[in-house]
């Protein structure tokens, strides 16, 4: 298929996605979406698995997984021996945090905008080691608007403390969805001899990445959010220097190699002999799950190349659309977009809603109840879903740019939000 026949971005590309004609998918960031060509590949892999379970899982699956790992590694410019596939970014973050050994006084640094489940993973570690006092979580407060330079200053102040073992940070935070200076944060971690763990949930397929240049200690990114693979699928990158730190997958797989200790009986490994690294073998087969989404990475990349004209054109379109669309929605609402120019270099945008709350309402948590009410109302009445967040004293929405969307779709979203906000304002009179 030649890229010379590429259809233009926007409405013409809707034909490749399974959305009903009356649905506006302007929240691509939460769960992603994938084209029907990828869906067909998914169904075929599932059919083959169901037709001959043993033959497919035992003999065909390993090679297909390797092909997907290779495709993902090439996309992020990484050595394939350092790349494995896992279900999602949260799995990767937990895998790193729970594999590390900790001693009294060790600290884990993370940002205030860290994804909630990942923050709770840190807190769970703190609680687990509480009797020994071995782990302390240091939360770097981030409330926008704030400059990237100020974020870096606060981050450096935190990781320069004695005993910091690892720092967890995003490429693009989820809510609010703003790009962090993650490249400079990795460099700061190296400066202070702190392990860097990048939660790149919104990364592969959303921004350009180069693992050889970036060189974090650990990196994980969902592929089902922005790369167009089926749910769920993520890439986990660990450079060779850190393979020894990842001793087990979660749950522990047959690839785990127990330490040799006097009197310990030999543990049987039912998997065939492999020339792959111990790190890769840990994640080759982590129990019986549906591996079909993992196998669709090449098909997803093929769609992006042949239908969308390649990564550069695709990324440019979705980023520009988020910027222009966000500005347009802000003009409809009479508000503004959150973040500076660098922080907005992503396919997601945060727009403030024209809603205000009294101090008493905030004390009562009314802003959170209203967020839930508006999200459900939009879903039930308007054929779309838009995430809201109360941040820095204001209510914001997150909108996603995508190849099947146009500026007109952001106009629709803006009008929906305008109606909902006006109705809320009238109800308070």
Structure in words:
- The structure is a single chain.
- With 429 residues, the chain is of the alpha/beta class.
- It folds into two domains: 11-25 and 309-428, Aspartate Aminotransferase, domain 1 (Alpha-Beta Complex), CATH 3.90.1150.170; 46-301, 3-Layer(aba) Sandwich (Aspartate Aminotransferase, domain 2).
- The chain has 15 helices and ten strands.
- It has helices at 28-31, 36-51, 53-75, 89-99, 116-128, 148-159, 182-191, 211-214, 278-284, 292-295, 297-306, 311-333, 359-363, 366-382, 407-427, and strands at 83-86, 106-111, 135-140, 164-170, 195-199, 218-222, 234-237, 348-352, 388-391, 394-400.
- It has a seven-stranded mixed β-sheet with strand order 1-7-6-5-4-2-3, sandwiched between helices.
- β4, α7 and β5 form a beta-alpha-beta unit.
- It starts with 27 loop residues before the first helix and ends with a helix.
- The model has no long low-confidence stretch (mean pLDDT 95).
- Keywords: Aminotransferase, Pyridoxal phosphate, Transferase.
- One of its GO terms (molecular function) is transaminase activity.
- It holds the Pfam family Aminotran_5.
- Residues 35-231 form the Aminotransferase class V domain.
């Amino acid at each position: 298929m030649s890229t010379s026949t590429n259809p233009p971005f926007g409405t013409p590309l809707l034909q490749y996605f399974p959305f009903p004609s009356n649905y506006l998918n302007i929240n691509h960031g939460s769960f992603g979406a994938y084209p029907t060509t990828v869906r067909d590949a998914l169904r075929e892999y599932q059919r083959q698995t169901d037709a001959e379970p043993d033959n497919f899982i035992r003999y065909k699956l390993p090679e297909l997984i390797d092909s997907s790992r290779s495709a993902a590694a090439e996309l992020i410019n990484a050595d394939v021996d350092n790349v494995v596939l896992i279900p999602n970014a949260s799995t990767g973050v937990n895998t790193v945090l729970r594999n590390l050994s900790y001693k009294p006084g060790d600290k884990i640094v993370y940002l205030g905008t860290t994804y909630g489940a990942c923050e709770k993973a840190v807190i769970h570690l703190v609680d687990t080691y509480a009797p020994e006092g071995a782990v302390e979580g240091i939360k770097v407060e981030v409330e926008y608007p704030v400059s990237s330079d100020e974020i870096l200053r606060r981050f450096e102040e935190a990781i320069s403390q004695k005993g910091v073992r690892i720092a967890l940070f995003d490429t693009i935070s989820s809510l609010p969805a703003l790009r962090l200076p993650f490249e400079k944060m990795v460099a700061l971690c190296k400066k202070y001899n702190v392990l860097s763990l990048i939660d790149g949930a919104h990364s592969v397929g959303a921004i350009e990445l180069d693992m050889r240049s970036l060189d974090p200690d650990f990196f994980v990114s969902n592929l089902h959010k922005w790369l167009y693979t089926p749910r769920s699928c993520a890439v986990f990158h660990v450079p060779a220097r850190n393979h020894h730190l990842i001793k087990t997958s979660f749950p522990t797989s047959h690839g785990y190699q127990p330490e040799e200790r006097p009197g310990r009986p030999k543990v049987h490994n039912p998997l065939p002999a492999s020339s792959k690294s111990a790190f890769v073998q840990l994640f080759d087969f982590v129990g019986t799950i549906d591996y079909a989404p993992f196998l669709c990475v090449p098909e997803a990349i093929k769609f992006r190349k042949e239908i969308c004209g390649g990564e550069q054109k695709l990324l440019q379109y979705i980023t520009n659309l988020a910027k222009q669309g966000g500005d347009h929605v802000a003009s409809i609402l009479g508000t503004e977009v959150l973040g500076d120019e660098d922080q907005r270099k992503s396919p997601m945008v945060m727009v403030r809603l024209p809603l205000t709350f009294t101090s008493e309402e905030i004390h009562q948590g009314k802003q959170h109840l209203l967020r839930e009410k508006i999200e459900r109302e939009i879903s039930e009445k308007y054929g779309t879903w838009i995430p809201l967040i109360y941040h820095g004293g204001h209510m914001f929405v997150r909108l996603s740019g995508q190849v099947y969307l146009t500026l007109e779709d952001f106009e629709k979203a803006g009008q929906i939000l305008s109606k909902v906000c006006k109705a809320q304002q009238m109800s308070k009179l």
